Recover the amino acids of this structure.
């Protein structure tokens, strides 16, 4: 259901001026021989396909939501990057769904475990880790390179919640696309042996220190069950009262 919803959101966003700007970027810089499909037509390389397709899914603000008390995230923000990575590497539909499920679970568990919005970080902060994990899976990276990919993505993904405060700019609908672009690039660098900050979460000046609290997750005991707790928007607005209070005190 979330994939169909994401596709419907993407189709609805075709031609909007900010997504058209992303399309122009993809056409100019995405390479004439790109192997990845742009929703609505055309091809680009994996980086610009991730950028553009993520922008389409996200822009109209009707995508799926995961609510975790005062925190929330939009797991469909992962779809464009995972789809591009899987198409680039020739993965099957089953492999795409597996990688996407990993992305959904990583992002939702992190969202449930850390006060990103309370500390002034954007809801896309957890997305950096989920895109890193899922694209690494799509590329078939080993454990060492997967860890490096997640570490690099996590270090580069601190976006501020100011993107969602008034006055709202067009960037609110594009910030996750920029993050997808950067994280896909990071995973490919990790696949070529580039290392990342090993203790990106628990280390000195890492995520836990930035949030001023530990981020303790037993991943071995985590089940892929987030799909039972998603909601699909009927209106393009924030849902929880607590979030509205954070954004508009």
């Amino acid at each position: 259901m979330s994939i169909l919803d994401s596709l419907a959101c993407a189709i609805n966003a075709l031609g909007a001026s900010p997504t058209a700007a992303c399309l122009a970027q993809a056409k100019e810089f995405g390479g004439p021989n790109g192997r990845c499909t742009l929703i609505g037509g055309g091809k680009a390389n994996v980086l610009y396909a991730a950028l553009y397709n993520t922008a389409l899914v996200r822009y109209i603000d009707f995508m799926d939501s995961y609510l975790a008390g005062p925190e929330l995230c939009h797991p469909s923000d992962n779809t464009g990057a995972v789809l591009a990575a899987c198409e680039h590497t020739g993965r099957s539909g089953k492999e795409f769904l597996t990688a996407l499920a990993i992305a959904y679970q990583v992002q939702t568990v992190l969202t449930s475990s850390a006060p990103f919005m309370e500390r002034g970080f954007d809801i896309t902060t957890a997305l950096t880790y989920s895109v890193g994990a899922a694209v690494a899976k799509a590329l078939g990276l080993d454990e060492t390179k997967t860890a490096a990919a997640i570490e690099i993505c996590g270090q580069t993904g601190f976006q501020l919640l100011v993107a969602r405060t008034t006055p709202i700019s067009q960037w609110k609908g594009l910030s996750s696309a920029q993050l997808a672009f950067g994280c896909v690039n990071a995973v490919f660098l990790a696949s070529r042996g580039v290392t990342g900050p090993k203790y990106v979460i628990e280390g000195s000046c890492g995520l836990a220190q930035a949030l001023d609290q530990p981020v303790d997750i037993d991943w071995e005991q985590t089940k892929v069950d987030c799909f039972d707790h998603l909601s699909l928007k009927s209106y393009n607005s924030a849902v929880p009262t607590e979030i509205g209070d954070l954004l508009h005190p």
The first strand starts at residue 36 and ends at 37. The chain has a mean pLDDT of 92.
